[in-house]
Amino acid sequence: EIPTQFQSLQSLSTLNLSYNNLSGNITFFNELRGLAQVDIGHNELEGPIPDVPAFQNASIQALEGNKGLCGDVSGLKPCKLSRNGHHKLLYATMFPPLGAAILSTAILALFFGFKKQGKDVDEESESTMINENLFAIASFDGRMLYAEVISATNNFDSQCCIGEGGYGNVYRAELSSGDIIAVKKVHPQRAGEVRAAKEFQNEVMAFIDIRHRNIVKFYGFYWSDEQSFLVYKYLEKGSLATILSNEEAGKELDWDKRVNIIKGVAHALSYLHHDCSPPIVHRDLTSNNVLLDLEFEAHISDFGMAKLLKPDSSNWTNLAGTYGYVAPELAYTMKVTEKCDVYSFGVLIMEIIMGAHPGDLISTLPSSSLEKQLLVKDVLDQRPLPPSPDVHDQLMSVMKIAFMCLAQNPHSRPTMYAVSVLLAN
């Protein structure tokens, strides 16, 4: 096994342990925040990979050859839900007045990913919760999350609010443990609505099995008629829309960062469409719903409009999404497919390149003559420094991908898997 004394090497930046016949888990590497590069390939290591950039950003070649490793890195198997260890299972129940249709998903097992000690909720307690008229989360470390959130946000005081939307407001909350979380509180006037309950359920159901580095981490939720909220990992840089709309922040968002954001969103959508079963269509991909961490890594959020594409379902639905991002075919077909997200992604690419929503330019892009005339320099956001020749070539390729994604005919648009591969190359 790897000696645990490694965790004291806080100045360690490069680590190569490949081909050493090492075994055991590597969770203690979570303490080595200074690591920049790792290679642990071809050992007998097992368990989840550490949640530090060096491991999360590692290539599959640096991790392969360890049959027991799992995680959100492309090429590794996802980690199975466990009742023991780093994550603690919380049981949630939902009951009338939300209706019989929602009751089919009454008992859910959710992660609350803080490093807490204490006993897991006993399985027998599921039945005792069935008489509760709320969507509740169990206590962790002897405290209720509800009480923690109310205290940390000063009962959802406006000074803690970091974002507003039609579905709910988002608050920053620092718990007594020191963990910082983001809390999305459903607007009070909507908490009792059937549609609001459906959107809430959509978001919870979509997040139960999702594990991807470019999708915001979901920690838990609370539901009652009077007050409801969802809990996520807090991302320090906020939304892409906020950054693009700010002069100084837009200048700081250089072209390397912008290309990396585009790649991250593409990888997340490819995961939702091609690695989830059934596939998940986000349906509301916008710059407001792309959050950035301290390294400007992109994380897709807000799955309230998400749709699971079940093979035994027609997948017809009401029009949903944000004006300016909605695929044109939804105006007359109302059938949701993965290609709806592909179109929204094309809009997002142009927004990132231009520094603002492309507006009416979108409707003129299907003209092949305009595509040929439209040069990168004509649309580039002028706030960052000009791109280097190599990055300029990348931006040309990215714009071509955007044009493909914005095709009026959904069948002419590429899949997000194809887009992800093109961007990776």
TrEMBL record:
Primary residence: membrane
Protein name: non-specific serine/threonine protein kinase
Lineage summary: Eukaryota, Viridiplantae, Streptophyta, Embryophyta, Tracheophyta
Superkingdom of origin: Eukaryota
Catalytic reaction(s) noted: L-seryl-[protein] + ATP = O-phospho-L-seryl-[protein] + ADP + H(+); L-threonyl-[protein] + ATP = O-phospho-L-threonyl-[protein] + ADP + H(+)
Domain annotation Protein kinase: ranges: 156-425
Enzyme Commission code: 2.7.11.1
Pfam families, per the entry: PK_Tyr_Ser-Thr (PF07714)
Bilayer topology: Single-pass type I membrane protein
Coiled-coil region(s): none
GO MF: ATP binding; protein serine/threonine kinase activity
Listed InterPro entries: Kinase-like_dom_sf, Leu-rich_rpt, LRR_dom_sf, Prot_kinase_dom, Protein_kinase_ATP_BS, Ser-Thr/Tyr_kinase_cat_dom, Ser_Thr_Kinases_DiverseReg, Tyr_kinase_AS
Taxonomic source organism: Gossypium gossypioides (Mexican cotton)
